[in-house]
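Interim report, section 4.2 (structural modelling).
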Amino acid sequence: MDNVLLINASTRGSASIGLRLASELLDCIRQRHAQATVTLRDLAAEPLAPLSAGYATALTRLTPAHDPVFASSEALVGELERCDLLLIATPMHNFTVPAVLKLWIDHVLRINRTFIAGPDGKVGLLVDRPVYVIVSSGGFHRGARARQPDFLSAYLRHVLGTLGLQNVHFVYLEGLAINEQAVLAATTQARLQLAGHPLFGDLVTPA
Ligand SMILES: Cc1cc2nc3c(=O)[nH]c(=O)nc-3n(C[C@H](O)[C@H](O)[C@H](O)COP(=O)(O)O)c2cc1C
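Predicted structure of the assembly:
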């Protein structure tokens, strides 16, 4: 394990419950892989450039572009290619991914760079590697308590699969807007789930 990439899409900085859990996962990785380099791509603290006309034109014409957004896209794809492990901490915003994460997707899911469109559909060009997605939400979207649809998980799984990343694990922190007890219940459940994975065996779990 040499390179870990953490993508954060929460706007809440150090108050983010998802980002806090992701930081604990990084601590676990550092315990076993002291040499690992961690790259934090904080999409909220350092917003990506909006898509430009030059970028969109280059994509549709399949010509190389001398466009700053193309350069940014290339840098973000490079980050992805270099990592051995991808962590994504994202809130649910209006039933799906936050706008900042959608913009990141538009930068990295690029035809003839990270996927090709063949006769049977799109095929990812990235080498597969483990991906952990921490999804935090104010309410519930799974099980008996669900009162809203989840358009985030299937969409993000499909995006990652189109990049070539199939080894994807979703971890949910639900009901975070209810009260402190609900936050504790959600984080406890997530910790127990993650501690079952070899990478995160050192995660502190409730007795
Ligand atoms: C613009 C916006 C839209 C939101 N939409 C949803 C939603 O559709 N469903 C939901 O359960 N929570 C929704 N929330 C609540 C956030 O998901 C919740 O505050 C977030 O998960 C907190 O995560 P964090 O502590 O990791 O930042 C929304 C919050 C914001 C700011």
